[in-house]
Write a structure and sequence with these properties.
Keywords: ATP-binding, Cell shape, Cell wall biogenesis/degradation, Cytoplasm, Ligase, Magnesium, Manganese, Metal-binding, Nucleotide-binding, Peptidoglycan synthesis. By secondary structure, the protein is of the alpha+beta class. It is built from 13 helices and 13 strands.
């Protein structure tokens, strides 16, 4: 959507929140913030929880546009996006393919590596490959410490930093309770940063980089959402030229996955070499009071309310011509 935004042009809008993933609690916080912001801008917005209502109701109740404030599986993985494509209702964020790739950290790495985007070395343990002999080989390949995480979860759920051989099996077992595929990843010691992106294709732009300083370097679920102990530095205070280089790199990574609308990419900068390594991409980032996209947008002069309105204005379909043909 170009030109001035008229909230009345959106028609009836559903804010999808809650859902069935392990990130339901965070999604409800995100969705509540988005709903309030859109309503404050004059949008006819309504809460819609897919865990409690059938998505077909969106069509039946004449919703014309959807803001996806779901996180994780059944919301950020291409499933809801595919359903909305079938219903012909434009939605915020990436389409079916980009969402499906981005939710899978291993698949994301494979695409990035094929396109020359740096990401930490990794080993994938698939279902049935959790025997002690296989698990104990992982530190030999990746070194210690290392990171163990479910391949398809977000919000740092199930993520563990493993310091020694004796801890590996327990970390893998904990991650296996959340996902059949376990990603074991080289640990990069250095600065942890994140960079949001707004827009699509050549029109996409990177927002200011945020440097994250968590208690004892542990940026886990609790420190992300429920404490005020984590420090977020924006301006990030990185050495001259590093922020611009990271912004350029994340834009490339965003585009090669075919993402659109918005996203946020997490990066580790090696403290010794200053080389950045991309960890993962979020295609439906958090919008809570602790969330980083609104924080970065605010540093760029974009209010939370205006950010929500712009994201809604950019809602589309993988095949937008189909929607246009119906009007």
């Amino acid at each position: 959507m170009t030109g001035p935004i008229n909230p009345k042009d959106f028609g009836k809008v559903a804010v999808l929140m809650g859902g069935k993933s392990a990130e339901r609690e965070v999604s409800l916080m995100s969705g509540s913030g988005v709903l309030k912001a859109l309503q404050s801008k004059g949008v006819d917005a309504h809460a819609f929880d897919p865990a409690e209502r059938d998505l077909v109701e969106l069509k039946r109740k004449n919703f014309r546009r959807v803001f996806i404030a779901l996180h994780g599986r059944f919301g950020e993985d291409g499933t809801v996006q595919g359903a909305l494509e079938l219903l012909g209702i434009p939605y915020t964020g990436s389409g079916v393919m980009a969402s499906a790739i981005a939710i899978d950290k291993t698949m994301t790495k494979r695409v990035w590596l094929a396109e020359g985007v740096p990401t930490p070395r990794y080993t994938l343990l698939r279902r049935g490959a959790y025997e002690r002999e296989q698990v104990m080989k992982v530190p030999d390949d990746l070194g210690l410490p290392l990171i163990v995480k479910p391949a398809r979860e977000g919000s740092s759920i199930g993520v563990a930093k493993v310091q020694g051989y004796s801890e590996v099996q327990a970390a893998v077992d904990a991650a296996a309770a959340l996902d059949a595929d376990i990603l074991c990843e080289q640990f990069i010691a250095g600065d942890e940063v994140t960079c949001p992106i707004l827009g699509t294709g050549d029109g996409a732009r990177a927002l200011p980089v945020i440097r994250i300083v968590a208690p004892e370097g542990n940026y886990d679920y609790q420190n992300k959402y429920f404490t005020d102990d984590t420090k977020y530095l924006v301006p990030c205070g990185l050495p001259e030229g590093e922020e611009a280089a990271i912004q350029e790199l994340v834009l490339k990574a965003y585009r090669v996955l075919g993402c659109r609308g918005w996203g946020r990419i997490d990066v580790m900068i090696d403290g010794a070499t200053r080389k950045p390594y991309l960890l993962e991409i979020n295609t439906s980032p958090g919008m809570t009071g602790h969330s980083l996209v609104p924080m970065s947008a605010r540093a760029a002069g974009i209010s939370y309310e205006d950010l929500c309105l712009q994201l809604l204005a950019d809602a589309t379909l993988d095949q937008p011509a189909q929607e246009a043909a119906k009007k």
